Amino acid sequence: MKKIIVELLIAVSAITIFSSCGVTKEESGNIKENISSEEEQQSETKNENSDSSKAAGESTDVDNKVVNLEVAAETENINKKIGNAVLSGKYTQLELKTEGYDKIAQVLDSYSQDRKTEVEKNLSDCEDMLGTEDSEDEYMSNIFYESTSNVMKADSNVVSILENVYSYSGGAHPSTWYISYTYDSNTGEELKLGDIVNDKNVLPEIIEKELKKKYPEETFLEPDSLKDDITTIMDQEGQMSEYAEEGDEPQRGLTFTLGSNGLTFYFSNYEIAPYAAGVQEVTLTFDEYPEIVKDEYKAHSENYIIKFDDAVKLENGEELKVDVQTENDYDGKYTISVGDNKGQFEIYGFSNDKYLVHNEGKDFLYIQTVEENDWRHINIFSLDGTPSKVLESNLYFAYDYCPSDPANIRLSSHYDLLSTYEGSRKYHINAAGIPLADSDYDLIDSGIELTLKKDLKAEVRKSADDAQGETETVAAGTKLSFYATNGVYVDLVTEDGRYVRVTPSTESYPHTVNGENEEDIFDGIVYAG
Fold first, then answer.
1. Cα–Cα nearest to 129, from 139, 115, 116
2. DSSP 331-359
3. What is the pLDDT of residue 402?
4. Contact indicator for 252, 265 with CB cutoff of 8 Å
């Protein structure tokens, strides 16, 4: 089980992850130590203020602000082998941690069960299709159905979720599609698009305009009829598809989520563009389109994170702009401006995502870049006066994750211990704009399974929460799944629920365990590259 606290989770210890900008590992550890007591005092004050001004379950309406809710998520993996084919699945389980919102808590419990059932049913259907014989079709050797739920906004007003499904059951390529769910946090009722906007009929033209502004015209299947295609999708809400089977639900219409700065629309493979064009998304911001969304749904919390393209408006009314010029595929020259204040920086990476972090009354810019082999980094900038770089970190936001609450973010890190995989943990952003870890280890998101080739002497714990285990001999043939790591040790889980701690020696290749080549001990190790 992988506990990931959201507005979600992920990554590696603050002492081991920060680099450059004059911040050493030791200094980053001191940052955390020096700030912790101050943050505890601020947190106590904030909680006292919150308790005195708002009873649980009641939204505040002061300066159009609401209170963030804490949602936790567990990522569950399923792995099966049918003949010579491998079936794998993944789904997200959401749980509300904030007390006083019983109805939305029940909704999230039901939502989580539905996602579990969805993945299990699809894998079961694939299993029936494969049968028990080895398949001669090379395209059927690796079947998967992965459902990832991302909480785009969770506060005392609404909870908005985006489900990303990535599936392959044979054919030329996998498929990706989105499904969205937005709920009233107090009643638990699902909010339809017409509940949130003032007039649905104006949306197709505006969405078409924003899509054509963001993407080249050749992106779309029918550029001249794009508005009509969007209208058709919107009008399908509540109708049964002509391809519907027994038990299928009505179509949901346009896929959308509500965020702190606007309403975002998503288009899956083939909805308006060919597969090669990928998926498309556009945000209608409250600033640019103030009349679209009803006032009660524009409220946002005091602290928030917004993902944006090139510009976004700050609380003080000034505009943050980021201009990027590239001389080649990887060297980027960034001009960051807030009003008349400008800063210029060089950042390595061939693509970027930009996030405005508003926390404790201060603004920060997070820029995530992607390098060769999908290596990602986050560059953090202070926007107080002339923009300045605070930190460069080898932490990063996962591909399918969009942060929304500075107190609950998920950050990822890359590992090469007994295999290649990502680890994740919950972080919070402090008053200086720096993410600090809320736990001592990362939870591993990996479907890799190892099998012992020989007996292994290791520390074994009965529970993941046990501080210390007993030295035992784990028998050859034992199957082990990845659970957690701190970059030094790896915790593996047996089929009967025991936790086996392994500490590989990584001073040279091949890595060793108990003085032996790890490949001589474990079957199933997979390294990237």
1. 139
2. EEEEEEEETTEEEEEEEE-SEEEEEEEEE
3. 83
4. no
Are 235 and 254 in contact by the 8 Å Cβ rule? The answer is no
Q: What angle do CA 441, 444, 449 make, to 5 degrees?
A: 135
Which residue in the block uniquely carries the two structure tokens 């700030």? 35
- Residue pLDDT, tens place only, 55-97: 333 333 334 578 999 898 888 888 887 877 888 999 999 999 9
64's torsion region: left (phi>0), alpha (psi -120 to 50) or beta?
left
Q: In whole angstroms, give the CA distance from residue 225 to residue 318.
A: 37
User: What pLDDT does residue 44 have?
Assistant: 41
Distance CA 141, CA 128 (A): 14
Separation between Cα atoms, residue 115 and residue 136, nearest integer Å: 31
Domain architecture of the chain: domains with CATH: 3-303+397-445 (no CATH), 450-523 (2.30.30)
Residue 89 is predicted with a pLDDT of 92
pLDDT for res 138: 60
Q: Are 319 and 338 in contact (CB under 8 A)?
A: yes
Q: Which residue has tokens 């474990």?
A: 522
Residue type at 114 in one-letter notation = D
Q: What is the pLDDT of residue 26?
A: 33
**35: which DSSP letter?**
H
Which 3 state secondary structure label does DSSP give 364? strand
DSSP secondary structure of 436-472: EESSSSEEEE---EEEESS-EEEEEESSTT-S--EEE
Residue 34 has a pLDDT of 34
Q: Annotate 96-145 with three-state secondary structure.
A: ECCCCCHHHHHHHHHHHHHHHHHHHHHHHHHHHHHCCCCCCCHHHCEEEE
Picking from 44, 13, 48, the residue whose alpha carbon sits closest to that of residue 28 is 13
Per DSSP bridges, beta strands 341-348 and 85-96 are unpaired
Determine the length of the chain. Answer: 529
Name the β-bridge partners of 18: 393
Give me the pLDDT at residue 374, please.
Answer: 79
Quick one: tokens of 241? 């598809």
pLDDT tens digit sequence for 392-441? 999 999 776 889 999 999 999 999 999 999 999 999 999 999 999 999 99
Residues 6+ apart with CB under 8 A from 410: 4, 6, 8, 9, 10, 11, 397, 398, 401, 403, 424, 425, 426, 427
Q: What pLDDT is stored for residue 234 in this prediction?
A: 96
- Other Cβ atoms less than 10 A from the Cβ of 57: the count is 15
Q: Cα 291 to the chain's mean position, in Å?
A: 30
Q: Which residues of the chain, if any, have pLDDT below 70?
A: 1-64, 132-140, 329, 400, 529
In the beta sheet, which residues pair with residue 477? none
* Among 93, 169, 167, residue whose Cα is nearest residue 130: 169
Phi, psi of 518 (to 5 degrees): -60, -30
